């Protein structure tokens, strides 16, 4: 690089640029968190929804599925599974409950997690709440 | 005898870190092969090792071996740059064993009991942090990571602050402090999924597209100074410009994860604009590495290291830069979000930027740490360079096959007039998963050769300086 451009100038661009964009990012974060309540409908996060998120986490569902497009790509997207299953919490529960312990020969299969009735209800409620988040119209269709 | 080649004997603590890194790397690849097979033979190892467990082991081992590599790199280069011994080699060694045992116990936990049981056993109820992608570690392991990080930063920080402060050292320290600070967000797990996701990215994105680039840049700069003999002033200037570009684009670039998770629409503009500039620092890194090697003032005996360094620059640009750009614009990402396109990018970016920089510093430092010389003998270097090409080319193919699978998946499942359900689309692209698995096997052969290269004896006639 030409001598006109000194190391001090390079350092100042690094320091100034980083600090400036950190501040911009913090300001945007502030604005985003202020706007989120209208988009995530947090008033609907009941104790059951919160328990559902915990059941979701403690069975590592994200290790196979995506949720709003994030996670693993081995199994279907679940952000819209409530819609895909005909807005039926019972259908979601029945699917989870009916997974064979030994799997399906040659095919991918969800493990049998032996969830209690309370946990099943909670997961279904959590997935229903998730399906109501304003995701800017994602996923593109019902298949996720 | 071992220490005679080191400017500062305390640099020797880097050696166990590098050995552990390579060992965990092997584990990561074995689990990668298992997962690759599960993609096409769905019931492989089911229900003993379900896919989610294999994936957790695969990704967590990656993170841990890279951290071992970064810490080893710091212990190796910081004393030399600071022109003084490491503050406490004993602490470095103690932290090594704590980190290794904690990591091993965590992996054993993943594999031996159901994840829900592990959550119960480790008291996830007290402070629930588990079950989020890449942050699956039990809370107690996370606390352990913080303790190790603090001890490590104390050790490295004191060494740097009371020694010569070079640009490489200060940038390295900034990156490491950033790494530790951003990890603290892994303890924030609100009941609100959208908030959870928003701040989860502060760990994940601000690591790999933020502070880790500082660590990458400083290790690359150090190796280039050592192997090319180019004036430090020139290299420092490049380093500053590269990391400036990385942070200026990467911080707001976080927005490319905020398109469809419930966050406001303006992130689609911000994320698209800033993250499409994210290839720039990686492109500069490529220009930097090639320029420095062209201007070299000496022919370094360790040709393998120079190959790794140039390879890192090129593959980081391709994997993080080009494959990142491929799906970073919001209208494109609308269709590719959460598909095999993401997996393709993830594989080449992590290998090109972070696996390769760790292999670069290991290649440079190991012959000295082992008391062999500035370089391995020619035959060993030839084997190492073969392993470089096998791993790198097969990673290119893994990426290409996953990209093909991803494009087909998007078409079949999201774009064509009669979109298919997820599993129907998966069945249609199985051929590409098979090809990916074959490429994975070749990668494994490359990795075996890499390990062999450490034990290849030189030709007796060869004069080894």
Observed structural traits:
heterodimer, A: 144 residues, mainly alpha, Cytochrome Bc1 Complex, Chain D, domain 2, two-stranded antiparallel ribbon, 2 strands, elongated, B: 465 residues, Cytochrome C Oxidase, Chain A, 0% strand
Please name the CATH architecture of the largest domain in chain A: Orthogonal Bundle
Report the structural category of chain A.
mainly alpha
Strand content of chain B: under 5%
Q: Within the CATH hierarchy, at the fold level, what is the topology of chain B?
A: Cytochrome C Oxidase, Chain A
CATH architecture heading of chain B: Up-down Bundle
Give average pLDDT of chain A, whole number: 97
Low-confidence stretches of chain A: none
Q: Could you tell me the mean pLDDT of chain B?
A: 97
Could you please say which CATH topology of the largest domain in chain A applies here? Cytochrome Bc1 Complex, Chain D, domain 2
Q: What value does the Rg of chain B take, in angstroms? A: 22 Å
User: What is the tally of beta strands of chain B?
Assistant: 0
When the domains of chain B are counted, the total is 1
**End-to-end gap of chain B:** 16 Å
Q: What is the rounded Rg of chain A?
A: 22 Å
């Amino acid at each position: 690089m030409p001598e006109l451009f000194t190391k001090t100038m390079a350092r100042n661009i690094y320091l100034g640029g980083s600090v400036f964009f950190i501040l911009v990012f913090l300001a945007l974060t502030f604005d985003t968190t202020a706007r989120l309540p209208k988009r995530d409908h947090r008033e609907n996060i009941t104790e059951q929804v919160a328990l559902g998120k915990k059941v979701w986490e403690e069975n590592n569902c994200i290790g196979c599925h995506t949720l709003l497009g994030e996670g693993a790509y081995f199994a279907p997207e679940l952000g819209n599974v409530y819609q895909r299953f005909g807005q039926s919490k019972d259908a979601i529960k029945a699917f989870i409950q009916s997974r064979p312990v030994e799997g399906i020969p040659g095919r991918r299969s969800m493990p049998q997690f032996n969830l209690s009735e309370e946990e099943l209800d909670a997961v279904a409620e959590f997935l229903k709440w998730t399906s109501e988040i304003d995701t800017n119209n994602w996923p593109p269709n019902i298949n996720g | 005898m071992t220490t005679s080649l080191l400017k500062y004997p305390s640099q020797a603590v880097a050696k166990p870190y590098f050995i552990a890194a390579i060992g965990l790397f092997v584990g990561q690849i074995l689990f990668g092969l298992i997962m690759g097979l599960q993609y096409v033979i769905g019931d492989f190892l089911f229900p003993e090792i379900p896919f989610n467990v294999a994936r957790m082991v695969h990704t967590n081992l990656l993170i841990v071996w890279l951290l071992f590599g970064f810490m080893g790199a710091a212990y190796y280069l910081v004393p030399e740059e600071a022109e003084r011994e490491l503050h406490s080699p004993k602490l470095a060694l103690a932290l090594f064993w704590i980190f290794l045992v904690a990591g091993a116990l965590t992996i054993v936990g993943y594999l031996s009991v159901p994840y829900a049981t592990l959550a119960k056993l480790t008291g996830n109820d007290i402070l629930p942090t588990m079950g989020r992608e890449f942050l699956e570690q039990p809370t107690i392991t996370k606390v352990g990571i913080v303790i190790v990080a603090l001890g490590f930063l104390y050790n490295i920080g004191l060494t740097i602050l009371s020694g010569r402060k070079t640009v490489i050292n200060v940038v390295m320290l900034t990156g490491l402090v950033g790494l530790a600070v951003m990890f603290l967000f892994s303890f924030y797990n609100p009941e609100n999924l959208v908030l959870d996701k928003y701040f989860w990215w502060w760990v994940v994105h601000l690591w790999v597209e933020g502070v880790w680039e500082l660590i990458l840049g400083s290790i690359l700069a150090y190796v280039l100074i050592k192997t090319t003999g180019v004036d430090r002033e020139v290299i420092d200037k490049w380093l500053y410009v590269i990391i400036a570009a990385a942070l200026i684009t990467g911080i707001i670039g976080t927005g490319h994860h905020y398109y469809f998770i419930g966050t406001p629409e303006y992130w689609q503009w911000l994320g698209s604009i800033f993250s499409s500039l994210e290839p720039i620092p990686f492109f500069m890194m490529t220009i930097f590495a090639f320029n420095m090697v062209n201007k070299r003032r000496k022919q370094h005996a360790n040709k393998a290291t120079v190959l790794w360094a140039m390879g890192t620059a090129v593959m980081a640009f391709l994997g993080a830069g080009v494959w990142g750009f491929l799906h970073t614009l919001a209208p494109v990402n609308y269709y590719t979000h959460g598909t095999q396109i993401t997996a393709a990018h993830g594989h080449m970016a992590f290998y090109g930027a972070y696996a390769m920089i760790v292999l670069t510093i290991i290649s440079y430092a190991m012959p000295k740490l082992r008391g062999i010389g500035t370089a391995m003998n020619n035959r060993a270097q030839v084997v190492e360079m073969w392993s470089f090409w096998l791993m790198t080319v097969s990673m290119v193919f893994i990426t290409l096959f996953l990209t093909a699978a991803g494009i087909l998946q998007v078409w079949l499942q999201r774009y064509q007039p009669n979109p298919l359900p997820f599993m129907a689309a998966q069945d249609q692209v199985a051929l590409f998963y098979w090809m990916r698995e074959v490429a994975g096997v070749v990668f494994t052969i490359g990795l075996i050769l890499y390990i062999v290269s450490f034990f290849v004896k030189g030709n007796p006639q060869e004069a080894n300086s």
